[in-house]
Amino acid sequence: MRTVADRYKVTSPIGRGGMGQVWAGKDLRLNRPVAIKLISLGDLVSAEEGRRRFNREARITARLRHPGVPVVYDFGHDGDLFMVMEALEGDSVGKLKDEVGRLPYPWAVFIAAQACAVLAAAHDAGLIHRDLKPENLLLCANGTVKVIDFGVAASLGAGEFSTITAEGQIPGSARYMAPELIQGRAASRASDVYAVGALLYELLAGRRPFQDDDLLAEIARCQREEPPAMIGVPAELNHVTLSLLVKEPERRPGSARAVFDLLRPMVCDLPPLPGWIRDDVRADPALMYAAVLSRLG
To answer: Is there a contact between 180 and 170 (Cβ–Cβ < 8 Å)?
Structure first.
């Protein structure tokens, strides 16, 4: 198998992200498992823009020091662009949804609330994710959720991380975009809040709010229709979810932190999730640590 930068041994594929392939690997110097994201410049339409985006994603991810963001250990160029991150035991929430369909509502809330905590940290740092979706959330075996792929994140102001999206280009995944982004308006905290609503709706209903096989039809429905009613969802949770999907950004809850505060009381009585969450999860030292810290709130 290949060794990157004379240090990171590439072993087996994990998955493909918005840019490049992610591989399991090993840091030969520190003797620890890692995840390695590789991008071949030859696969990019513009090598220079690809390099800029990749370097930007690495710096943004490394800057966000939060338990819900993978730790970046290294990045650079060694034939391909590479970014080395902490190895995570788990898989995407997208795969979980495909496997089980509609999630029990406590799990849907549990996942969305953790995503909100990460978005609150990003927003505090002046960053908008712009591509929150089930495939960009990893559910780890101890129940923690990691938000990944900050490749199209936008800055709330000028500076190191200002957006590099070309004119007329739609960043992120159109099926999860707020209506104002599809209309070409600037990204804001409210557009990330909408994405949380789209995520939560899909986990609760087993389908996207305006799901259609045709992308353009789905985008058009997002602009003009109200989300269909969800069956079997508690009334309060249904109300919160729909409030996140309001067309006008100023009418949505004001921040990811505000959405977290709405969802947190609904996180209770999590049923088993076989094959995804370890049976001995309560003994996980990271969760023991977090349980003590939770007493501060």
So the answer is: no
